[in-house]
Automatic annotation (TrEMBL), chain A:
Family named by the database record: Belongs to the ABC transporter superfamily.
PROSITE patterns: ABC_TRANSPORTER_1, ABC_TRANSPORTER_2
A GO MF term: ATP hydrolysis activity
CDD domains noted in UniProt: ABC_putative_ATPase
Protein name, entry field: ABC-2 type transport system ATP-binding protein
InterPro entries named in the record: AAA+_ATPase, ABC_transporter-like_ATP-bd, ABC_transporter-like_CS, ABC_transporter_ATP-binding, DrrA1/2-like_C, P-loop_NTPase
UniProt KW Transport keyword: yes
Domain annotation ABC transporter: ranges: 5-232
Keyword line: ATP-binding, Nodulation, Nucleotide-binding, Transport
């Protein structure tokens, strides 16, 4: 059993509106799983079903091979997109309360809070009220509360919103460390650069249906177009370009480079190997830049959504 | 996992530690007592004001009718002309002049009585004087017909109808007053409690929505647990506040009356004084005795037990609806349209209680309304002092509990969906749809 969380053909309707249609996902243990999709696709509904906030109409969700039951609340840490804290409650009291709701004893919670408060250097906030903190500071508290009970499964919905780049990085490192310590992470966001950086697996939900699913690298391989980005230096630009155009499919390219040289995207067919292309190019001009174009998560996202319109 | 105690504890302590709650708890009785002391003090000042009323009686019928009392002195100006008398009264700055003009017979007197004064006299003074004159004239007329004063006195009989039920249970008029007071107090207390603390629950639900903490919480606990925790925690805070009010109010009342030397039981206004004088005061002592018997005649055990059950049942029924409203809306201004259907039956219950139960505690209307769950707590509490058969109480309570369970189910549905809905104010139609989610 390598998947910590499995959702089997989960469907959910609100009145006439079908929020999820037969969606299945499998989240491998110890991975960071990106749950992507345009606004209103049904991500939040799926996350709420995993958290047992809403019940699915059809299908089942298994955590560690067992159907979800109320006790599983302890095994999940959830940072919702719509998040907040009791404004007039003191930081310490509030953290203790929320930790106890997750099943920690008071002494356990205190010890772990001390660890986190020291780690993030916020020990002097203990007696402050939430309303005295800045938004970013409150977010830090929210993050601690989410991970405090050391859940097997962590669900972060837009975890970086409200953080400055420094703190966003800090939280990102914490998430990676938690993963290394064995936690499994479901990560929902619209920021594709963080998907690129963090996720091992992704699933894309669009209009209530899952449209894409798998290892990020596999998906990228699937979506790659055998295109290479090249930068060449030659005295006779026009001749070189036309010679390349005769043999390959060519598009103009833009990238940053030190020389003002020929920048092209060259697509090769199945029979041609990258080496063939490279040796052809070296015979024609000076090669400064030769990179395979790998589709970004953002490209894949946009393309898939468009294809499924 | 049962988090209910934890939630109750948090709700209770956040309420109790809230500054405005503390201020309200300790300031309200102070304000009430201060107000009471001021009123008592002022009425005492009023009492101390002595007034002199001059009498000019040209008929001679009304000699010795007006006896001086502690605060009112009567001067007889007989023999003066009306103009002289007015001038004199004006000069002496008396309260006023009562003039009884010449009359040929006793029947003519009625049109000839006038009261002259600087300012318009108080209603109670005038009616007091009227009562005294009427009484004397009646006596005079009877005397003319040959009935002596002694006979008149002897003819006075005081009737009090002893009431007894077929089962031999005795009661009296004063009993009924006491029953009304107990029932009314219980019903009104429940009404106030529901309105004050129901609102508090609603606000606390809205607060969780606006601070966006709700989703964090319900990923740990079931919404219904959160809702029940809120209701119970807030109610406990409410009970705490009530108890403090009663204790503090009681202590302050004693202290204040000791300091200012106001005998609160003896605050008597001049008008009461004059009425008593005219109407032959009832034996106050006898009344006090009656009062004690009346209270001991009440079905006290029944009353207390029924009070607990109906109070809790009624309160929980309404507060779960308040919680549902809080969940359905985003801010307090949006609550108005949903408040009306809650307040209507409550107010109706109080009206039915006040107007119908007094008239006929076991009449059709009172009985019916003491069965309808939304009005039964208030109306039944008002009826019980008059003795309600146990089967009726039981049935009504059963209906109440049934409705309560239904209301909690209903509220929990709305609550569960509503707490995650942001943005727009739902319509009744949408609320109904939520039930099916």
């Amino acid at each position: 059993m390598n998947d910590l969380l499995v959702a089997n053909s989960v469907s959910k309707s609100f009145g006439d509106f079908k929020a999820l249609n037969q969606v299945s996902i499998a989240v491998p243990k110890g991975s960071i799983f990106g749950l992507l999709g345009p606004n209103g696709a049904g991500k939040t509904t799926l996350i709420r079903i995993i958290n047992q906030i809403t019940m699915p109409d059809e299908g089942a969700v298994l955590l560690d091979g067992q159907p979800l039951k109320p006790e599983h609340v302890r095994d999940i840490g959830y940072l919702p997109e719509e998040r907040g804290l009791y404004k007039s409650m003191k930081v310490g009291e509030q953290c203790l309360y929320l930790a106890q709701l997750k099943g920690l004893t008071k002494t356990e919670a205190k010890a772990r809070l001390k660890y986190w408060f020291d780690k993030l250097e916020i020990g002097d906030w203990w007696n402050k009220k939430i309303q005295e903190l800045s938004k970013g500071q409150a977010q830090k508290i929210q993050f601690i509360v989410t991970v405090l009970h050391q859940p097997k499964l962590l669900i972060f919905d837009e975890p970086f919103s409200g953080f400055d780049p420094i703190n966003a990085n800090l939280i990102k490192d914490e998430i990676l460390q938690l993963r290394d310590e064995g936690a499994t992470v479901i990560f929902s966001t619209h920021r594709m650069e963080s998907v690129e950086e963090l996720c091992d697996h992704i699933a894309l939900i669009h209009k209530s249906n899952k449209v894409l699913d798998g290892k990020l690298n596999d998906i990228k391989r699937q979506y790659k177009t055998n295109t290479f980005e090249v930068g060449l230096e030659s005295l006779d630009r026009a001749k070189v370009i036309s010679e390349i155009q005769d043999k390959f499919e060519v598009l103009p390219a833009t990238f940053r480079n030190l020389n003002d040289d020929i920048k092209l995207n060259i697509k090769i067919n199945e029979q041609t190997s990258p080496n063939d292309l490279l040796s052809f190019l070296t015979s024609k001009a000076q090669v400064h830049h030769f990179v395979e174009v790998i589709p970004s998560a953002s490209d894949i996202f946009i393309q898939t959504v468009k294809n499924n319109q | 996992m049962n988090h209910l105690p934890l939630i109750i504890k948090r709700e209770y302590f956040t309420k109790v530690k809230n500054k405005s709650f503390i201020v309200m708890t300790f300031l309200s009785p102070l304000i009430m007592i201060a107000l009471f002391a001021v009123v008592a003090y002022l009425s005492q000042l009023n009492n101390d004001k002595e007034r002199t009323i001059s009498i000019l009686d040209d008929t001679g019928y009304l000699e010795e009718v007006f006896q001086n009392t502690e605060f009112t002195t009567y001067t007889n100006l007989n023999g003066l002309s009306l103009d002289d008398a007015i001038a004199l009264v004006k000069e002496k700055e008396d309260y006023g002049l009562l003039y009884i003009g010449k009359a040929s017979s006793l029947d003519d007197v009625s049109g000839n009585v006038k009261f002259y004064s600087e300012e318009s006299p108080s209603l109670s003074v005038i009616s007091g004087l009227e009562l005294q004159i009427e009484k004397r004239l009646k006596e005079k007329k009877l005397e003319l017909d040959g009935v002596s004063l002694a006979q008149i006195e002897a003819s006075q009989t005081d009737i009090e109808i002893g009431q007894e039920s077929f089962e031999g249970e005795k009661s009296s008029k004063i009993d009924n007053v006491v029953k009304l007071a107990f029932g009314g107090a219980a019903g009104y207390l429940l009404f106030m409690f529901i309105v004050i603390y129901g609102n508090m629950i609603m606000r606390s639900v809205i607060e969780e929505k606006t601070s966006r903490i709700i989703e964090v919480i319900i990923s740990s606990v079931k919404p219904i647990q959160l809702m029940m925790g809120k209701i119970i925690g807030t109610s406990l805070a409410g009970i705490t506040q009530f108890v403090i009010w009663v204790i503090l109010g009681g202590v302050l009342l004693v202290v204040v009356s000791a300091i200012f030397g106001i005998d609160l039981t003896q605050v008597q206004t001049p008008q009461q004084e004059m009425m008593n004088q005219a109407m032959q005061a009832d034996g106050t002592q006898a009344m006090a005795e009656n009062l004690i018997t009346a209270i001991s005649n009440l079905p006290l055990t029944n009353l207390i037990i029924a009070f607990l059950f109906f109070f809790i049942g009624g309160y929980l029924l309404y507060s779960s609806l308040y919680a549902a409203i809080g969940a359905a809306v985003d801010n307090e201004t949006d609550t108005q349209q949903f408040m009306l259907p809650i307040l209507m039956p409550l107010i109706l219950a109080v009206y039915v209680g006040v107007f119908t139960v007094i008239e006929d505690p076991h009449g059709t209307i009172s009985t019916v309304f003491s069965f309808i769950p939304f009005t039964s707590p208030v109306v039944m509490l008002m009826r019980i002092p008059f003795g309600v058969p146990l089967w009726q109480q039981g049935l009504s309570l059963l209906l109440l509990i049934g409705t309560f369970i239904f209301a909690v189910w209903f509220a929990a549905k709305i609550y569960r969906v509503g707490i995650l809905m942001y943005g727009k104010k739902p319509t009744y139609k949408e609320l109904f749809k939520w039930l099916k989610y």
